[in-house]
Amino acid sequence: MLELKKDFPVLTSNPNLVYLDSAASALRPQAVVDAMNDYYARYGVNVNRGIYDLSDYATIMYEKTREKVAEFLQAEIEEIIFTSGTTDGLNTLSRILEQKINPGDNIVVTRMEHHANLIPWQQLAKRKQAELRFIEITSNYELDLESTKKVIDERTKIVSVTAASNVLGTITPINEFTVLAHSVGALVIVDAAQLIPHGPINVKDIDCDFLVFSGHKLYGPTGVGVLYGKKKLLEELEPVAFGGDMISRVSYESASWAELPHKFEPGTPPIAEVIGLGTALDYLRQIGWNNIQAHEQELVNYVLEKLPEVATIIGPANQVTRTATFSFIIPNTHPHDIGDILNRDQIAVRVGHHCAMPLIQHLGLVGTTRAAFGIYNSTDDVDALIEGIKKVKKILLNEYL
């Protein structure tokens, strides 16, 4: 297995911490912290506007990340737009695409969406008197492809799906959705926040129209994300946020827009965060995605072997169709109590509805406890979780395992 804890200052500063909350935010390696500090300490000026050396250098460093992201997604540089995160990207898309929705149209999402990929479309449907439809989940916690064929029809204008569930760990068969959606002329949006830490996504292969993700899920900084869009679509669509750096010409009466990608990037961007994201991609590439995926597969297999001995997994039992994010329940216990007791041994998990309240209610649960593993975790962390759960059951249920 990979041994990377030494690269992460939070873990070296807290040597007894068992961090199992990477689906909420992955930790950042020292290299990312150093790159952001270097920006602020050595050349912390604005980009795109100055004709002096420091501004030129800042712009070069900033735009290098755009090139790295484009390579990571197999996209064109003009198709990469920086945002503040996945939520910002999805809200931006819901406003940009509003012009394409008419009364009686429908928008399709899945039952397992994060609030960020549910509420923007829910509110858009209400504003435009459109219908919001849902792809169902099977008893194995996977998406029901037969359901997909029923809800996507000739009135479908947008299909927006998560690439992987932040609750269930389920990986979505995006290609199958894309083919079906495009057959009726619908646009396909992919929320890749939960899948992106597990490997590069080739947007050409999956043929999505838009894709969003956050830097902090990818071992990068908070406050930065990416919106990918097909160049042809981005050229046709109108911006919905306005200000400096996104205009070509402006008068007191009218304005015209800058070329892509700056057309959709108004104002001063998150410069340090973008540079940090580029460094995170460098760090992951140096480790090697094959090594990362082999490491995570070993963790997934080990969790699937050990966790069912002490808890009930809410998610796929098939290691091929899931990520290393595991929600679980213990009968007759509350997730908050589980999380509190685990915390006493410095085991950090997430509890509650995980910003997916409708899904939790749909499953008939009050919440779950979630353990989400990253590249810095090991089988020792799995063992610590299992022992922690045994302690939970001893305290709350008087069980001795």
What does this structure look like?
Strands 2-8-7-6-5-3-4 form a seven-stranded mixed β-sheet, with helices on both faces. β3 (106-110), α5 and β4 form a beta-alpha-beta unit. The chain is 39% helix and 15% strand. The protein is globular. It has helices at 9-13, 30-42, 53-73, 86-96, 119-128, 145-151, 174-183, 203-206, 231-236, 271-287, 289-306, 335-344, 357-362, 379-397; strands spanning 18-19, 80-83, 106-110, 131-135, 156-162, 187-191, 210-214, 225-229, 247-250, 255-257, 312-313, 325-329, 347-348, 350-352, 368-372. The model has no long low-confidence stretch (mean pLDDT 96). It is an alpha/beta fold and 401 residues long. It has two domains: 5-20 and 288-397, Aspartate Aminotransferase, domain 1; 32-284, 3-Layer(aba) Sandwich (Aspartate Aminotransferase, domain 2), CATH 3.40.640.10.
Structural class: alpha/beta
Radius of gyration (Å):
22 Å
Q: At the fourth CATH level, what is the homologous superfamily of the largest domain?
A: Type I PLP-dependent aspartate aminotransferase-like (Major domain)
Query: In total, how many domains does the architecture comprise?
Result: 2
**Percentage of residues in strands:** 15-25%
Sheet having the most strands: 7 strands, mixed
Binned, the helix content reads 25-40%
- Bulk shape: globular
CATH level-1 class of the largest domain: Alpha Beta
Could you tell me the mean pLDDT? 96
Distance between the amino and carboxyl termini? 28 Å
Task: Give start-end ranges of low-pLDDT stretches.
Answer: none
CATH architecture of the largest domain: 3-Layer(aba) Sandwich
* CATH topology annotation of the largest domain: Aspartate Aminotransferase, domain 2
Helix tally equals 14
- The number of E-state strands comes to 15
* Strand adjacency order, main sheet: 2-8-7-6-5-3-4
Strand-and-helix sequence, N→C? HEHHEHEHEHEHEHEEHEEHHEEHEEHEH
